[in-house]
Every structure is written in structure tokens, then in C-alpha cells.
Amino acid sequence: MNHATLAIDFIANGERAHWHDAALWFVREKRDTAARSLPEWEALRETASAVKAHTMSRLAEYLEQFERQATKLGAKVHWARDAAEHNRIVLEILQSHGVKKLVKSKSMLTEECHLNPFLERHGIEVVDTDLGERIVQLAGQPPSHIVMPAIHFKKEEIGTLFHEHLHTAAGASDPNYLAEAARHHLRDKFMRADAGLTGVNFAIAETGGCVVVTNEGNADLGVSLPKLHVASMGIEKIIPRAKDLGVFLRLLARSATGQPISVYSSHFHGPRPGGELHIVIVDNGRSALLGKKHFQGSLKCIRCGACMNTCPVYRRSGGFSYQSTVPGPIGSILAPARDPKHYYSLPYASSLCGSCTDVCPVKIDIHHQLLAWRREIVDGGHLPRSKRLAMKLASVVLRNTWLYRSVGRMARLSLRWMPRFVVYNRWNTWGRQRDLPPMPRKSFRQQYQERYDQPGRNPRGDS
Amino acid sequence: MTSRDEILAAIRKHQPPVREPPHLDGAWTIYSDRLAQFASVLAAIGGGFIRAADAARADGQLRDLAVYRDAKLIVSTVSGIGQSTVDLASISDPHQLETVDFAVLPGQFGVAENGAIWVTDRNLKHRVIYFIVQHLALVIAADQIVDNMHQAYERLTFDRAEFGAFIAGPSKTADIEQSLVIGAHGPRSLTVICLG
Question: What's phi and psi for A82, nearest 5 deg?
Fold first, then answer.
């Protein structure tokens, strides 16, 4: 895959790309207002980052403690090395309970594992119940954003989709009307579901509890009507103590949407009376990422999406151009960790402006990691041949003073008289969206000499 | 080797050197008037607020609410506030609560910084009641409001199989073009009743 190529269609519709950009910037600004309302914001970020760093340094111990505590409360804990094992475990749990209809709340882990198509192949109806996720599910798409899965959709398109699937009035596009239709549609699904599946925002080692956060209340409806609750979590969701949540819940919603807290922060400790709670702990590449010194910090991520909302590249290229469950800056670290050859272009989908790092609530040094990934990609030989050759050529020129000056002279001369179609040829990808600046007649070195290498003058002016 | 042991072994192999956990007692914001702060954040997140000296007066104010007056099926587990028409204890299947219009339930305490209320399912037969009703009222004592989430967790212990949640305002979504819609799947309104 190539990010730049995949973004072409998105960018081609300038008006729409601008609309997408503005929609995300609106969320970024709400985040700023929320962050500024707390004088201790930076201390919170610092603390959250330190809690995560500590957790990672004792992750195995905390996972074992979590398992012990959760089991004591009556939950059943399962372990999955990879996506296939996760899906198999979930299917076995569902089949052994005769589940035909499953309602899910938002879980990027199950997206990562492609759980839905797997369960559907085994005859289980899967309904995503987060409104945004339901929209993309009806459209046959993956989410384009981890917090706002349908951020790329216009309300008119959702109206058309709902007209087709939920039989809303043709041409209706009022968000209140459409959300009301979805409410009826999904409440019906909740009533008929045999089991509910949720992700996990935080798993507390000390108590064995899982915390799930939503605004709609869909997770709670999904797991409080049927008797069976399956919770899927990555190994990095562990936090040591319940009181750590005081820090994380203050940061999460403010960073994600600018709310002071999400509407529902539900703490599940054990199954409800007469019910069952199964917790599936998934590795799927995370323990390997823990071993990568430069990138282990990316496991601190609490999936707030703030880095996406602020990223000038994400906002202007859309979530689908990343072809990864988690897109945007943090996704551009996580995806190459999974498959550097396939995702080689993602670390380049960044201007390295550092805005992602500035907003990250757990202080992941995102743009530094993106730069580090570029080095890995080059060292691993994952760049396409054209890029490799160009880099090699540049390296030769830049290392040789004489060659560097001659090439500069040639460029200054030739670019002035060469016809446009020669300069803006098909290999000049840089020149596709912009013009080269006018060539100066003299090099920097020449101009410098003329200005300062005269008697009585020097660059600092302290003659 | 089981998957569990394999995962734990891989983690142990890759774990970075031990880092000490940070202390959590920072200079966190506190408020001179917690109740006023709570009420103002609650209004901002779409919640309603009733302040009453006692249950009888709260009950009177509740009856002034159109959504309460229009409610046919009502569950109240708070004595003196709201008139139950459905007996929660007699319901065996939580699905039967689908048609409940209004519920009045106790909250444990409120959080001034974000307008959230802590609730649990202790002594509550069906936890789904918090989420499935059309309109919800939570009752707390006016002096049971903490400043911030750090104080909130100092009050909480998790030593038994129990459900607990912070509820902050009515169910909502902004998944259609970032337009805020109140009443996504859960309660279309949340009223907090502060007693005392």
C-alpha cells in the first residue's frame, strides 16, 4: 500500500477534503478548550505517561494479577496469541451458549482481528451498536476514525443509507431524525441479542475489573440484557490500581471530544448474578512491540484519537488512506510494527510537525517515533526502488563538495531555460501540486561571499 | 506451552527495566462551591438539576417535569420521590423493562469537575434500568459531591462482584456530522435531584 496514492481520490474532491479537515479541527478545538480548563493538565499527562511506563515495566505481573482477581470475581479469562486465536475463542464461547445474534459496542481490537466477517461466516448475526460503527457497518466499510467511525460521511449520505436499510423517509438528513431511527432500530437489536461483546478501555490489575466507556450507553445495554458478556482486550489495556483511573478518565474524554467525561464509564467487576463474563486477553503483536526500544512507548496509547484530529495529513487525506484499523499518527507507528514492508509509507504520511506529540494525553513522542520508523524502513530495505535510488544519488551528491556545487550550477542554469513539460515530467512528483520556486542566479555561497567577504565586514557585524 | 504462558514469556522477555509508579497526589483543582460547580457542568452536558430540602419537596418538583407527568410506567427505588407503577423486584427478565418511561434511582455521590454521578447495582435487581429507561432521575445528598475524579476513586472500593458506573448526563451521540443528538440509545434526559 502507498498512503499518498490512496489519498489521491480523497484529495481530488477539494471541497469535501476541506469539509473533513474542518470537521476534525472543530473537535481538536473542543479538546483545546477542555484541556485549558484544567490548570493541572500537563501534570495529568505526565502522571498518565508515568503510570503507563511503570505498568509496561511490570506488565506480565499485572496481567497475572488481573487474571487472578477477575477469576476470583467469577469471570473467565482467556488468552489469545493472535487474531485467529481470539476469533476462535470468541466463536467457541458464543457457540457453546447457542448464540445466534451478537450485539457489539465499539472495539478497535475486534476490527483489528476482523471478528465480524469471521463470526458471520459461522452463521452469527453481528450488529455494531455504536451509531458511527453501525453506519459504516451498513455501508460495508471499516471505521475511518477510532472515536468517530463515520466522520467521513455526510448526513445526506447517512440519510440515503438509512432509507435503504432502516426505511427512513427518502431524502431525510436531519441528524435528530436519523439518530432517532437508529435508536429504534438498535433497541430492537438489543432486545433480541443472545450475547453482548465489548472492548475494554482499562483493565484494573488490583481489582480484576474492566472499564468500558461510551457516550451512547450502547455497551451497557448490550451486556445488561443478555446473560453473556464477552470483553476483548489487548494486553496493553492494563492499569495497576483503580485510583489510576482518576488520572485516565480525566484525560480520555477531554482529549477525544472535549467532554469533561464520557456519559457512561462502566466498571464491570465479575459477571452479573446469573450471567457470565468472559475476558479475552489478546497479544497479536503487542509483546513484540514491547521489545522494540524506540516504539514500545506507543503501547501507552489510550485510543483517544486526539493525534488524528490534529494531524494536518490525516485531516486532509482521510482515515481510509492508511488502510489500517488505527489510522493517523499513532496508527502509522502501530501498523509498520505489524508489517513494515506493507505499511512502509505510513511513517512518511507526516510532516513531523509534532502536533500529535503535543496533544497526546499519555505523552507518546509520536513524531519522534515516526522519524525512527523511517530509519527502520530504509535500513530494512522496505523503500521502493525509485526512492532508494533517489536517496542513494542524493547521498553521493551531498557528500562530494565539487559534485554538489556543479549540480547546483547546472540546476540553476537548466531550470531557467528548460521548457515546462521537461521540468514537470512524470517523475517529478513534487511538482504535481506546486511550482518550483524561481531559480536564483547565484548560489548561496556566492551571495554570501559577495556580501561579507569584503574588507571591514563580517557576518556578525562586529568589525 | 499454552497461549497464556507463551504470551507472558514473550512479555517478560521484552519488558523494559522496572520503573516506579508515580504518586497521584498532585495539586488537583478543587472548588470553593462544589455544588454550584457540579450544577453548572451538569447543565453544560445536558443534564437537569433539582435542588430540594427534602424528599417531599423533591417529589413535588419532580411532578413539575413534563417528562415525569407524561410517564406511564415508572420505577422508583428512592422512598418518597416518584410513584412506582412497576415493581422492579417482581420482574424476572430485564427485557421487560424496555417500556419503562421513567426511573428514579439513588446515586452514591457526584463529581464537581465533570457532573458525573457514581451508581452501582448493589441492592438493584436489574442494572439495565439505568440505561434502558426513556428518562432517568438520580438522587444524591447535596453534601455528597467530591471535587474531582481523584477524590472519587478514594471513596470507591472494588472488593466484590458488582457493577458500578459514572453517569454524566443523558445518553448522547455526535456520530452524524458532529451534530449533538441527546438520547442515543439510553435515557433521553437525566435529572439530578440534590437533597439537603
Answer: -145, -175
Test mutation, B5, B7, B25, chain A, max A CBs within 10 A: B7
Q: Is the pLDDT of residue A253 over 70?
A: yes
Mean pLDDT of A294-316: 97
Tell me how close the Cα of B106 comes to any Cα of chain A, in angstroms. Answer: 16
Cβ contact (<8 Å) for A85 and B21? no
Domain ranges of chain B: 26-195
State pLDDT tens for residues B132-191.
999 999 999 999 999 999 999 999 999 999 999 999 999 999 999 999 999 999 999 999
What is the chain A residue with the closest CA to B147? Answer: A246
**Grid-cell match 490512496, residue found:** A6
What is the pLDDT confidence band of residue A362, given thresholds at 50, 70 and 90?
A: very high
Residue A462 has pLDDT above 60, yes or no: no
Superfamily of domain B26-195, CATH level 4 = NagB/RpiA/CoA transferase-like (3.40.50.10420)
**Tens of pLDDT along A44-63?**
999 999 999 999 999 999 99
C-alpha A199/C-alpha A268 separation (Å) is 12
- Please give the Cα distance from B97 to A77 (Å, whole number): 30
> Would you say A444 and A405 are in contact if contact means Cβ atoms under 8 Å apart?
no
pTM of the entire predicted model = 0.94
CB-based contacts of B134, cutoff 8 Å, min separation 6: B67, B71, B100, B101, B102, B187, B188
Whether the complex's predicted ipTM surpasses the cut of 0.95: yes
Residues of B in contact with A132 (CB under 8 A): 173, 175
The answer to whether B45 faces chain A, any CB pair under 8 Å, is yes
Distance from CA of A55 to the nearest CA of B (A): 8
**Does A218 lie at the interface with B, CB-CB under 8 angstroms?**
yes
Asked if A99 and A228 count as a contact pair (C-beta separation under 8 A), the reply is: yes
3-state secondary structure chain B: CCHHHHHHHHHHHHCCCCCCCCCCCCCCCCCCCHHHHHHHHHHHCCCEEEEECCHHHHHHHHHCCHHHHCCCCEEECCCCCCCCCCCHHHCCCHHHHHHCCEEEEECCEEECCCCEEEEECCCCCCCCHHHHCCEEEEEEECCCEECCHHHHHHHCCCCCCEEEEEECCCCEECCCCCCCEECCCCCCEEEEEEEC
* Nearest one of A364, A72, A362, A108 to A244, comparing CA atoms: A362
The 10 Å Cβ neighbour count of residue A455 is 6
**What average pLDDT does range B69-95 have in this prediction?**
96
